[in-house]
Amino acid sequence: MSGPIAVLGGTGPEGFGLALRWAQSGETVIIGSRDALRAQAAAAKIRQKITDAKVSGEENSAACALSGIIVLTIPFEGHAALLKQIKSAIPPGSIVIDTTVPLAASVGGRATRTLGVWQGSAAEETAELVPPGVSVVAAFHNVSSALLNADAPIECDVIVCSDDHAASEKVQALAAKIPGIRALDGGKLENARIVEQITALLIGLNIRHKGHSGIRITGLPAAAYHTD
Ligand SMILES: NC(=O)c1ccc[n+]([C@@H]2O[C@H](COP(=O)([O-])OP(=O)(O)OC[C@H]3O[C@@H](n4cnc5c(N)ncnc54)[C@H](OP(=O)(O)O)[C@@H]3O)[C@@H](O)[C@H]2O)c1
């Protein structure tokens, strides 16, 4: 993948885990935060684990301005406000990957329920808020941060949804860089409505059975599964 990947909210477990895994695979990563010092501290933590990691930390808008691939890993409660704040910093032609699950927990409700989003999904809300010419791709909703931050390969499929086929393929390649993950073309961005909902079910399974569940899609031809 050419150019750095900005992981906004990369100080939290999901973004940190993705940043760590991509740094391990040799990608250049910029961790974004509302606070540049917090981002730099998270980047330093990754460099402690991987000495040759190409990772740095910046305030969210600064991270965006330096990247062609921008990953949103922030809670739904801050989703729209952050997108409005970073809008002018998103470079034309870039890809925004949205991992956001609109969990009711983000506004004080249960983690096993989702909120209704006017646009249909968090990812479709993102598509309304990014500048024209920026592609939105929904992915990684069903990958547990606990697994991303552990050392083992991740037994999980990543369903990638976008209205831009080329952008979807780039994100599938990026997902497949994480050992164990298989990426699948999940069709249009509106399918993020379904993929986001699955996470609420997985959280319920995790609570009930005390684990870190993920999904595997079976029965498709080998060519459907993108692996590294
Ligand atoms: N955790 C998982 O296992 C998992 C799995 C799949 C998908 N996801 C999705 O990934 C996203 C991140 O999950 P997480 O568990 O890492 O979340 P989190 O720890 O609650 O938040 C991640 C980071 O977002 C920033 N943040 C918090 N509130 C914000 C706000 N109101 N506005 C802007 N930034 C804010 C914080 O960074 P700074 O304070 O440094 O700015 C925080 O470290 C969520 O949308 C979640 O649904 C999570």
Separate helix tally: 8
Calculate Rg over CA atoms.
16 Å
What spatial order of strands do you see in the largest sheet? 3-2-1-4-5-6-7-8
The main pleated sheet reads as: 8 strands, mixed
How would you portray this structure in words?
There is one protein chain. The chain is α/β, with parallel strands linked by helices and 228 residues long. The protein has a single domain (5-224), classed as NAD(P)-binding Rossmann-like Domain (Rossmann fold, 3-Layer(aba) Sandwich), CATH 3.40.50. The chain is 36% helix and 17% strand. The protein has helices at 13-24, 36-49, 60-65, 79-86, 122-129, 145-148, 165-176, 192-209; strands spanning 5-8, 28-33, 54-59, 69-72, 95-98, 135-138, 157-162, 182-185. Strands 3-2-1-4-5-6-7-8 form an eight-stranded mixed sheet, sandwiched between helices. Helix 4 (79-86) runs parallel beside helix 5. The two termini are 13 Å apart. Bound molecules: NADP nicotinamide-adenine-dinucleotide phosphate. NADP nicotinamide-adenine-dinucleotide phosphate binds at residues 9, 11-15, 33-35, 38, 73-78, 82, 99-101, 103, 141, 143-145, 199.
